[in-house]
Write a structure and sequence with these properties.
The protein has 202 residues and is an alpha+beta fold. Helix content is 46%, strand content 26%. It has four helices and nine strands, in the order βββααββββαββα. Strands 1-2-3-4-5-6 form a six-stranded antiparallel sheet. A three-stranded antiparallel sheet has the order 7-8-9, with helices on one face. A hairpin with a 5-residue loop joins strand 5 and strand 6. The two termini are 32 Å apart.
Length: 202
């Protein structure tokens, strides 16, 4: 079964599996890749300057040492910001190209796993401990959410629930329609699993 253009589901005798694929327009992905290549080049060039190039630059003026010290400070500050955005950007690029979210619904629990190249850690949540399963409410005025949904980030999740007082979420960058359909699908499957368990126990 297909939900939207990013979600596929499949029923098995003892479980249901759901796969959520990241999706981005090909032209955006191509531009993002070129941007990362240029950004990476600039960062490595600044690292070269930090490791010795800054002292080979020609400096005009009386306070040569002070100017070089200022250049060194500026370079270190720049590289701090660069390293942060480089990490987030490369991580996002790998996610868009090779990532997926895998959800398994069996008799007792929901298991969620985010993977890139097939690698990732799975987390299981028993149905009895899952509370307040709902859509994630996006705040259009929140800078944090705007920042996390920028092209260089992997995006916020579409579904959220409480587990022992802590919020757990999945469904990155799902639009509202797909998130609602997936929520209804999971709720129906969980109800079926719970009823089946009650019949087995009776």
């Amino acid at each position: 079964m297909q939900i939207g253009d990013r979600i596929t589901t499949e029923d098995h005798p003892d479980k249901t599996t759901i796969v959520i694929y990241p999706k981005i327009a090909p032209w955006k992905l191509a531009l993002f890749s070129l941007w990362i290549a240029g950004f990476t080049f600039v960062g490595f060039y600044m690292i070269w300057i930090l490791l010795g190039g800054v002292y080979s630059l020609e400096v005009v003026g009386d306070n040569v040492e002070d100017i070089r010290d200022q250049q060194l400070v500026y370079t270190i500050v720049f590289l701090g910001f660069w390293a942060y955005f480089e990490y987030k950007s490369v991580k996002s690029l790998l996610w868009f190209r090779y990532g997926m979210e895998f959800i398994k619904l069996d008799r007792d629990a929901l298991t969620h796993k985010r993977s890139v190249f097939g690698y990732g850690k799975a987390h299981s949540y028993f149905y009895d401990n899952m509370k307040n399963f709902r859509l994630f409410e996006n705040d259009a005025t929140s800078f944090g959410q705007f920042f996390e949904n920028a092209i260089w980030s992997q995006g916020t999740d579409g579904l959220i629930f409480s587990h022992f007082g802590k919020d757990k979420s999945f469904g990155r960058r799902l639009d509202e329609k797909s998130a609602k359909l997936l929520l209804r699908f999971i709720e129906d499957k969980v109800k079926t699993c719970v009823k089946r368990n009650l019949r087995m126990l009776s």
